[in-house]
Amino acid sequence: MFPGQGSQFQGMGQELFKQFPDIVESANQVVGYNLAEMCLTNTDNLLNQTNYTQPALYLVNYLSYQNYLKQGGAQPAYFLGHSLGEFNALNAAGVFDFESGLRIVQKRGELMLSVSGTSMAAIIGAEYKEIKEILATNFADIDVANVNTASQMVISGPVGSLERSADFFEEEGLVYIPLKVSGAFHSRYMNPIKENFKHFIENVKLNSCKIPVISNYSAAPYPSDTDGILKNMVNQIDSKVKWLQSVEYVLYQGEYNFMEVGPGEVLTNVLKKIKK
Protein backbone atom coordinates (compact mmCIF):
# COMPACT_ATOMS: atom_id res chain seq x y z
CA MET A 1 0.00 0.00 0.00
CA PHE A 2 1.40 3.38 -1.06
CA PRO A 3 0.08 6.37 0.93
CA GLY A 4 -1.18 9.65 -0.50
CA GLN A 5 -1.47 13.27 0.60
CA GLY A 6 -1.79 13.65 4.35
CA SER A 7 1.11 11.26 5.00
CA GLN A 8 3.81 13.84 4.29
CA PHE A 9 5.86 15.37 7.10
CA GLN A 10 9.00 17.46 7.39
CA GLY A 11 12.05 15.18 7.49
CA MET A 12 10.49 12.32 5.55
CA GLY A 13 12.92 10.37 3.40
CA GLN A 14 16.04 11.55 5.22
CA GLU A 15 17.78 8.15 5.35
CA LEU A 16 16.47 7.12 1.94
CA PHE A 17 17.96 10.19 0.24
CA LYS A 18 21.39 9.14 1.52
CA GLN A 19 20.92 5.58 0.20
CA PHE A 20 19.75 6.56 -3.30
CA PRO A 21 21.53 9.85 -4.23
CA ASP A 22 21.46 9.13 -7.99
CA ILE A 23 17.68 8.70 -8.00
CA VAL A 24 17.24 11.90 -5.97
CA GLU A 25 19.42 13.81 -8.42
CA SER A 26 17.44 12.41 -11.34
CA ALA A 27 14.19 13.49 -9.64
CA ASN A 28 15.57 16.99 -9.05
CA GLN A 29 16.39 17.29 -12.76
CA VAL A 30 12.82 16.30 -13.70
CA VAL A 31 10.99 18.69 -11.36
CA GLY A 32 13.48 21.57 -11.57
CA TYR A 33 14.17 22.02 -7.85
CA ASN A 34 15.72 20.12 -4.92
CA LEU A 35 13.03 17.69 -3.76
CA ALA A 36 15.10 16.21 -0.93
CA GLU A 37 15.92 19.62 0.51
CA MET A 38 12.24 20.60 0.41
CA CYS A 39 11.26 17.42 2.28
CA LEU A 40 13.86 18.07 4.97
CA THR A 41 13.39 21.84 5.47
CA ASN A 42 9.75 22.41 4.36
CA THR A 43 10.58 26.05 3.63
CA ASP A 44 7.43 28.24 3.46
CA ASN A 45 5.36 25.12 4.25
CA LEU A 46 5.59 24.08 0.58
CA LEU A 47 5.30 20.42 1.58
CA ASN A 48 1.57 20.95 2.21
CA GLN A 49 0.96 22.64 -1.17
CA THR A 50 -0.30 19.97 -3.57
CA ASN A 51 1.97 20.85 -6.52
CA TYR A 52 4.95 20.17 -4.22
CA THR A 53 3.37 17.48 -2.01
CA GLN A 54 2.69 15.12 -4.88
CA PRO A 55 6.21 14.90 -6.41
CA ALA A 56 7.73 14.76 -2.89
CA LEU A 57 5.52 11.89 -1.74
CA TYR A 58 5.91 10.06 -5.04
CA LEU A 59 9.71 10.19 -4.61
CA VAL A 60 9.68 9.04 -0.95
CA ASN A 61 7.17 6.27 -1.71
CA TYR A 62 9.32 5.11 -4.64
CA LEU A 63 12.53 5.10 -2.58
CA SER A 64 10.74 3.24 0.24
CA TYR A 65 9.79 0.50 -2.23
CA GLN A 66 13.31 0.37 -3.70
CA ASN A 67 14.65 -0.03 -0.16
CA TYR A 68 12.13 -2.81 0.50
CA LEU A 69 13.31 -4.68 -2.62
CA LYS A 70 16.97 -4.00 -1.79
CA GLN A 71 16.45 -5.71 1.57
CA GLY A 72 15.09 -8.81 -0.15
CA GLY A 73 11.38 -8.00 0.06
CA ALA A 74 9.18 -10.31 -2.03
CA GLN A 75 7.05 -9.13 -4.94
CA PRO A 76 3.48 -8.68 -3.66
CA ALA A 77 0.33 -10.29 -5.06
CA TYR A 78 -1.36 -6.86 -5.35
CA PHE A 79 -0.51 -3.17 -5.25
CA LEU A 80 -2.78 -0.47 -3.82
CA GLY A 81 -2.22 3.27 -3.58
CA HIS A 82 -4.35 5.91 -1.90
CA SER A 83 -5.00 8.77 -4.36
CA LEU A 84 -1.48 10.03 -5.25
CA GLY A 85 -0.13 6.67 -4.00
CA GLU A 86 -1.89 4.91 -6.85
CA PHE A 87 0.71 6.36 -9.23
CA ASN A 88 3.44 4.68 -7.17
CA ALA A 89 1.46 1.45 -7.39
CA LEU A 90 1.26 1.79 -11.20
CA ASN A 91 4.98 2.51 -11.41
CA ALA A 92 5.81 -0.51 -9.22
CA ALA A 93 3.59 -2.65 -11.45
CA GLY A 94 5.56 -1.54 -14.55
CA VAL A 95 2.93 0.71 -16.17
CA PHE A 96 5.44 3.58 -16.57
CA ASP A 97 9.01 4.29 -15.47
CA PHE A 98 9.98 6.38 -12.43
CA GLU A 99 10.64 9.63 -14.29
CA SER A 100 7.45 9.40 -16.36
CA GLY A 101 5.45 8.87 -13.17
CA LEU A 102 7.16 11.86 -11.55
CA ARG A 103 6.23 14.06 -14.50
CA ILE A 104 2.62 12.81 -14.31
CA VAL A 105 2.23 13.59 -10.60
CA GLN A 106 3.94 16.96 -10.99
CA LYS A 107 1.42 17.87 -13.69
CA ARG A 108 -1.43 16.45 -11.60
CA GLY A 109 -0.38 18.61 -8.64
CA GLU A 110 -0.13 21.75 -10.76
CA LEU A 111 -3.58 21.16 -12.26
CA MET A 112 -5.17 20.40 -8.87
CA LEU A 113 -3.67 23.59 -7.38
CA SER A 114 -5.32 25.65 -10.14
CA VAL A 115 -8.78 24.89 -8.68
CA SER A 116 -9.02 27.54 -5.94
CA GLY A 117 -11.52 28.30 -3.16
CA THR A 118 -12.13 24.65 -2.31
CA SER A 119 -10.94 22.19 0.33
CA MET A 120 -11.68 18.89 2.12
CA ALA A 121 -12.71 17.60 5.55
CA ALA A 122 -12.87 14.20 7.23
CA ILE A 123 -16.15 13.05 8.79
CA ILE A 124 -15.96 10.25 11.37
CA GLY A 125 -18.87 8.34 12.85
CA ALA A 126 -21.33 7.86 9.99
CA GLU A 127 -21.72 5.48 7.08
CA TYR A 128 -21.53 6.51 3.43
CA LYS A 129 -25.29 6.39 2.90
CA GLU A 130 -25.96 8.70 5.86
CA ILE A 131 -23.33 11.24 4.75
CA LYS A 132 -24.68 11.13 1.20
CA GLU A 133 -28.20 11.89 2.43
CA ILE A 134 -27.04 14.76 4.66
CA LEU A 135 -25.15 16.34 1.75
CA ALA A 136 -28.01 15.87 -0.74
CA THR A 137 -30.50 17.47 1.65
CA ASN A 138 -28.42 20.27 3.16
CA PHE A 139 -25.18 20.85 1.24
CA ALA A 140 -25.74 19.98 -2.41
CA ASP A 141 -22.45 21.56 -3.49
CA ILE A 142 -20.32 19.16 -1.37
CA ASP A 143 -19.26 15.69 -2.60
CA VAL A 144 -18.02 12.55 -0.85
CA ALA A 145 -14.38 12.30 -1.94
CA ASN A 146 -13.02 9.28 -0.01
CA VAL A 147 -14.64 6.23 1.54
CA ASN A 148 -11.77 5.21 3.83
CA THR A 149 -13.58 2.89 6.27
CA ALA A 150 -17.22 2.03 6.98
CA SER A 151 -17.45 5.11 9.24
CA GLN A 152 -14.71 7.45 8.00
CA MET A 153 -15.42 9.57 4.94
CA VAL A 154 -13.76 12.62 3.40
CA ILE A 155 -15.84 15.35 1.78
CA SER A 156 -14.84 17.97 -0.81
CA GLY A 157 -16.37 21.31 -1.71
CA PRO A 158 -16.20 25.11 -1.55
CA VAL A 159 -14.49 26.39 1.62
CA GLY A 160 -17.58 28.36 2.75
CA SER A 161 -19.89 25.37 2.38
CA LEU A 162 -17.50 23.10 4.27
CA GLU A 163 -17.31 25.61 7.12
CA ARG A 164 -21.12 25.78 7.31
CA SER A 165 -21.38 21.99 7.28
CA ALA A 166 -19.00 21.67 10.24
CA ASP A 167 -21.62 22.89 12.76
CA PHE A 168 -24.25 20.61 11.24
CA PHE A 169 -22.10 17.48 11.42
CA GLU A 170 -21.01 18.24 14.97
CA GLU A 171 -24.63 18.78 16.05
CA GLU A 172 -25.34 15.32 14.62
CA GLY A 173 -22.69 13.94 16.97
CA LEU A 174 -20.11 13.33 14.22
CA VAL A 175 -16.45 14.29 14.24
CA TYR A 176 -15.53 16.96 11.65
CA ILE A 177 -11.82 17.47 10.88
CA PRO A 178 -10.75 20.07 8.27
CA LEU A 179 -7.86 18.74 6.18
CA LYS A 180 -4.72 20.71 5.30
CA VAL A 181 -5.13 20.42 1.55
CA SER A 182 -5.29 23.04 -1.18
CA GLY A 183 -8.33 21.85 -3.13
CA ALA A 184 -11.48 19.73 -3.36
CA PHE A 185 -9.77 16.62 -4.70
CA HIS A 186 -11.78 13.66 -6.02
CA SER A 187 -14.91 15.71 -6.58
CA ARG A 188 -16.84 17.49 -9.34
CA TYR A 189 -14.54 20.51 -8.81
CA MET A 190 -11.68 18.60 -10.46
CA ASN A 191 -13.74 18.06 -13.63
CA PRO A 192 -12.44 21.17 -15.47
CA ILE A 193 -8.82 19.92 -15.30
CA LYS A 194 -9.61 16.36 -16.35
CA GLU A 195 -9.21 16.78 -20.12
CA ASN A 196 -5.89 18.60 -19.69
CA PHE A 197 -4.62 15.76 -17.48
CA LYS A 198 -5.74 13.18 -20.06
CA HIS A 199 -3.88 14.95 -22.88
CA PHE A 200 -0.72 15.02 -20.76
CA ILE A 201 -0.83 11.27 -19.99
CA GLU A 202 -1.55 10.43 -23.64
CA ASN A 203 2.05 11.42 -24.40
CA VAL A 204 3.43 8.90 -21.87
CA LYS A 205 4.23 5.32 -22.88
CA LEU A 206 1.98 3.02 -20.84
CA ASN A 207 2.35 -0.74 -20.34
CA SER A 208 -0.05 -3.26 -18.85
CA CYS A 209 0.34 -4.11 -15.15
CA LYS A 210 2.80 -6.93 -14.40
CA ILE A 211 1.16 -7.24 -10.95
CA PRO A 212 -2.52 -6.29 -10.38
CA VAL A 213 -3.12 -2.73 -9.15
CA ILE A 214 -6.44 -2.18 -7.37
CA SER A 215 -8.00 1.01 -8.75
CA ASN A 216 -9.33 3.79 -6.50
CA TYR A 217 -11.91 4.51 -9.20
CA SER A 218 -13.33 0.99 -9.66
CA ALA A 219 -12.16 -0.84 -6.49
CA ALA A 220 -11.11 -3.66 -8.87
CA PRO A 221 -7.88 -4.47 -10.72
CA TYR A 222 -6.78 -2.06 -13.45
CA PRO A 223 -7.71 -3.26 -16.95
CA SER A 224 -4.99 -4.92 -19.03
CA ASP A 225 -5.33 -2.64 -22.08
CA THR A 226 -3.60 0.75 -22.14
CA ASP A 227 -6.82 2.60 -23.07
CA GLY A 228 -8.47 1.18 -19.95
CA ILE A 229 -5.42 2.11 -17.84
CA LEU A 230 -5.50 5.68 -19.16
CA LYS A 231 -9.23 5.93 -18.47
CA ASN A 232 -8.83 4.80 -14.84
CA MET A 233 -5.92 7.19 -14.21
CA VAL A 234 -7.93 10.12 -15.57
CA ASN A 235 -11.24 9.22 -13.90
CA GLN A 236 -9.51 8.97 -10.53
CA ILE A 237 -8.99 12.74 -10.43
CA ASP A 238 -12.68 13.68 -10.06
CA SER A 239 -14.13 10.41 -8.70
CA LYS A 240 -14.23 9.32 -5.07
CA VAL A 241 -11.48 7.10 -3.69
CA LYS A 242 -13.09 3.74 -2.89
CA TRP A 243 -10.43 2.72 -0.40
CA LEU A 244 -12.66 0.58 1.82
CA GLN A 245 -13.93 -1.36 -1.20
CA SER A 246 -10.39 -1.70 -2.63
CA VAL A 247 -9.08 -3.24 0.59
CA GLU A 248 -12.14 -5.47 0.81
CA TYR A 249 -11.47 -6.70 -2.74
CA VAL A 250 -8.03 -7.92 -1.65
CA LEU A 251 -9.36 -9.39 1.60
CA TYR A 252 -11.92 -11.41 -0.39
CA GLN A 253 -9.04 -12.96 -2.38
CA GLY A 254 -7.64 -14.35 0.87
CA GLU A 255 -4.61 -12.01 0.92
CA TYR A 256 -4.19 -10.73 4.48
CA ASN A 257 -0.56 -9.62 4.79
CA PHE A 258 -0.68 -5.89 4.02
CA MET A 259 2.38 -3.62 4.10
CA GLU A 260 2.47 0.18 3.89
CA VAL A 261 5.41 1.43 1.82
CA GLY A 262 6.09 5.13 2.36
CA PRO A 263 6.20 7.71 5.15
CA GLY A 264 4.04 7.25 8.25
CA GLU A 265 1.34 4.72 9.08
CA VAL A 266 -1.88 6.39 7.91
CA LEU A 267 -2.98 3.46 5.74
CA THR A 268 -1.88 0.89 8.33
CA ASN A 269 -4.17 2.55 10.89
CA VAL A 270 -7.04 2.76 8.38
CA LEU A 271 -6.53 -0.95 7.60
CA LYS A 272 -6.88 -1.87 11.28
CA LYS A 273 -10.28 -0.14 11.36
CA ILE A 274 -11.41 -1.89 8.16
CA LYS A 275 -10.38 -5.32 9.49
CA LYS A 276 -12.05 -4.64 12.83
Can you tell me about this structure?
This protein is of the alpha+beta class. The protein folds into two domains: 14-114 and 187-275, Malonyl-Coenzyme A Acyl Carrier Protein, domain 2, CATH 3.40.366.10; 118-178, Alpha-Beta Plaits (2-Layer Sandwich), CATH 3.30.70. Helix content is 49%, strand content 11%. It has helices at residues 14-19, 21-31, 35-41, 50-70, 85-92, 98-113, 128-138, 159-171, 191-201, 226-235, 243-252, 266-275; strands spanning 79-80, 118-124, 143-149, 152-158, 175-178, 213-214. The strands form two sheets. A four-stranded antiparallel β-sheet has the order 3-4-2-5. A two-stranded parallel sheet has the order 1-6. A hairpin with a 2-residue loop joins strand 3 and strand 4 (152-158). Helix 4 packs antiparallel against helix 6 (98-113), helix 6 packs antiparallel against helix 9 (191-201) and helix 9 (191-201) packs antiparallel against helix 10.
What's this model, at a glance?
This protein is an alpha+beta fold. Helix content is 49%, strand content 11%.
Write the layout of secondary structure elements.
Blueprint (H helix, E strand, L loop, with lengths): L13 H6 L1 H11 L3 H7 L8 H21 L8 E2 L4 H8 L5 H16 L4 E7 L3 H11 L4 E7 L2 E7 H13 L3 E4 L12 H11 L11 E2 L11 H10 L7 H10 L13 H10 L1
Parallel strand pairs: 1-6
Antiparallel strand pairs: 2-4, 2-5, 3-4
Helix pairs in contact: 2-6, 3-4, 4-5, 4-6, 5-6, 6-9, 9-10
